[in-house]
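Example record for the data management plan.
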Amino acid sequence: MNKPNPYTLMFGKEPIQMISRVTDSEDIYRNFLSDISPQQVYMITGVRGSGKTVQMTEISKKIKQEENWIVVELNPVKDLLLDFAAKLYNEKKATDIIHKAKINLTFWGIGVEIEKTEKITDIEVAISRMLESLKKHNKRVLITIDEVTNSHTMKEFASAFQIFVRQDLPLYLIMTGLYENIDALQNEESLTFLHRAPKIFLKPLNLGSIVNQYKKTFNIDETEARKMAKLTRGYSFAFQVLGYFTFENNGNYKDIIDKYREYLDEYVYNKIWSELSEKDKRIMYAIASSKDGKIIDIREKLNLKSNELSPYRERLIKRGLLNGDERGIVRFTLPCFEDYILNNYLGDDYD
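Corresponding structural encoding:
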């Protein structure tokens, strides 16, 4: 039997070959498992394909192994409170405890009829009762929600979560989402508690770790592995795509570079580009057209003052599209993205 490809082209799927972000994951794990948890909510954000879902999955799997923890994954397009109540009741570690507490959830189509007990007709009350019964048995509940948006059901759920926390119930939450969606949710007047929740901005993977992975997988020397790693710029999805096509090509990455770039364009960059405003696109094109990414030259191209460019620059950095670590310079975080922009921008040319 042929050896399976250790890389994946699927978003969100945990691959065989992956690079963990140990520090962030350990911080969340340690804080949640503390006797008195300093945080009950974490938000993981980053550009598409940066590894948000994989990191959340890695953390939740580890926590699920703890005897007194229950992990519930919710679907963001469903009624989140009802979905949570149903899934919590059906968790093996929770069902018997909730049933023995005589919590009648049949109004919501959950569980079985319990004699001489009234049906609970308020979903928040139902969840609160379940969590109270679990707390008495020293159970804690972690909720994970992938790719949140500022939807009605998400706002309703977040408001209820805030109440559960104030009731000192053992409830914890990890959410992933694009920066703009997380930001919109945080800015809701009724959800100010989310501003205090730690946000983890996923940065590029460590290039040294990518070099080591490629060396081991493809049995190549340090120089060739470094060339491969540089092609990814540490972008998590690019690490997977380049590895996948190289594996399929018997370890030869040079012949699949065009295929690698085309895949990124079609499955990631088209979507990212379509979500940018025309002003953002114009600024990104000016950056792509510059030789060295100097802010002063980019402002000149755009005919903008420093205070006019700064808000766009900061937003694009927070969205994970630009790196502004070098003073007075911006660079693209995604591999070959400048080439994509030069080929796809339909506005005025600066040359």
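Summary line stored alongside the record: The chain has three domains: 22-201, 207-272, 277-344.
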